[in-house]
Design goal:
- This protein is mostly helical and about 400 residues long.
- The protein has one domain.
- Helix 1 crosses helix 13, helix 1 packs parallel to helix 14 and helix 15 crosses helix 17.
- It is globular, with a radius of gyration of 22 Å.
- The N and C termini lie close together (about 10 Å).
Length: about 400
């Protein structure tokens, strides 16, 4: 747990939130808070509500965007992990500058970065192991994915921008080449991959190298995860997620690092916004073109290079809008609830894994069922989930008011 300097002030004023931690861009915290809110919003169970309104395009839209796509494509829900990973990179230039100002050496910072990476990995495994009979070794979780790449990201963050671009190209091109060169099985076994023959997302030709559970990373997963103690032998991940996704995820974080450097630079605000908007357009166009031309499908679950570029393009755009509105135009009051979440992102992540069920059951225990059905039975999950989110936010606000920020 860390607290900012006691010389700061204005913690309770939404218009001066950045003074809680000096020299901090409020837009970064707001964007991180938005990503974490969308993650926690799963408790609203919009798809359960949508089942009662099957003819409603609105509820169909909301359900789609609160779910991961089956394989190819992208929903808003698929943008949560890229956004969180992107923000890790975007915040890094500010962190490095702050540590250098305190006189920390590069060696000390790198050692701390790898320590932090190890803690993130262990925390991810710990949370995934809850309610299991033994440690559940898995490395596709958001925290473990960031942890696996964070130490390397920090080392890149100490190098020049040119070297960061080179590292990005090597990572994404190399990852694509490794998949493209890996042999494709002649026959698809539904039991091995977890999907029937008629599944609409099977791909042919070059794209077949990125089919679910029959690709380079999936075969690595079968070998790697079976090195750890398990309740039963690992054969495939039901969602197709893989450990090696941390490699292109590192690419996502590098692009965040580059965006953070742009924001921290001495360029005029208009130039910074222009770089983010223009850079986002290029990334979205390149990612979409790779998918459209069947060179590399856009698949979040194995974090294909095309997905890394496509998703970060949207991250650039979202950050551009937030930076322009919050830090340039200084229209800030609306973002305060998101900032409260964003400044304690690790805390709310842990809360969502540990006390979500407890909070949900407590509200049902102490309130009449009529409260949850006040808008009708179809909306019961929405009301119950809203109470959980409000409870989480109030806890974070209490921490914010006391300047308690969970750091690793």
């Amino acid at each position: 747990m860390a607290t900012p300097s006691s010389s700061t002030s204005g913690a309770g004023d939404p218009t001066t939130t950045s003074s809680v931690l000096p020299n901090r861009l409020m837009s970064l915290d707001a964007y991180r808070g938005l990503a974490m809110f969308l993650m926690v919003a799963e408790v609203l169970h919009l798809c359960r509500v949508a089942e009662h309104f099957r003819d409603s395009r609105v509820w169909e839209f909301l359900c789609f965007h609160q779910s991961h796509v089956a394989w190819i494509g992208c929903s808003i829900h698929d943008m949560i992990q890229p956004s969180f990973s992107f923000m890790v990179g975007a915040a890094l230039p500010f962190s490095i500058a702050s540590r250098r100002a305190r006189g920390q050496s590069s060696a000390a910072m790198i050692a701390h970065a790898f320590f932090r990476a190890a803690v993130l990995i262990l925390l991810g495994i710990f949370l995934r192991s809850l309610r299991r009979d033994q440690t559940y070794f898995t490395f596709e979780d958001t925290l473990t994915q960031i942890g696996l790449g964070y130490g390397f990201l920090f080392c890149i963050g100490l190098r020049s921008c040119r070297e960061a671009w080179i590292a990005l190209a090597v990572i994404l091109v190399g990852y694509w080449l490794a998949f493209a060169a890996y042999p494709v099985p002649m026959i698809l076994d539904p039991d091995r991959v977890g999907e029937p023959f008629g599944w609409p997302h099977w791909m042919t030709g070059l794209e077949a190298h990125w089919n679910k559970n029959v690709n380079l990373a999936a075969d690595f997963e079968r070998w790697f995860l079976n090195l750890f103690p398990r309740e039963s032998s690992f054969d495939h991940n039901g969602g197709g997620y893989v450990t090696l996704s941390f490699i292109p995820t590192l690419g996502t974080m590098i692009l965040g690092l580059i965006a953070g450097r742009w924001l921290r630079s001495d360029r005029p605000a208009a130039a910074k916004v222009g770089l983010l908007v223009g850079g986002g357009a290029v990334l979205v166009a390149v990612g979409a073109a790779l998918g459209y031309l069947h060179i590399c499908p856009i698949v979040k679950r194995i974090w294909t290079p095309s997905f890394a570029l496509y998703s970060v393009g949207f991250c650039f755009w979202i950050l551009a809008v937030m930076y322009l509105v919050i830090d340039v135009a200084r229209f800030r009051a609306w973002a305060f609830p998101l900032v409260v979440i964003g400044m304690n992102s690790i805390a709310i992540y842990v809360m969502s894994w540990t006390i979500e069920g407890f909070v949900h059951d407590a509200w049902h225990r102490h309130l009449s069922e009529k409260v949850f059905k006040i808008f009708g039975e179809p909306y019961e999950p929405l009301v119950g989930g809203s109470l959980v989110i409000i409870t989480f936010w109030l806890i974070l606000y209490w921490m914010y008011r006391r300047r308690l920020f969970l750091r690793i």
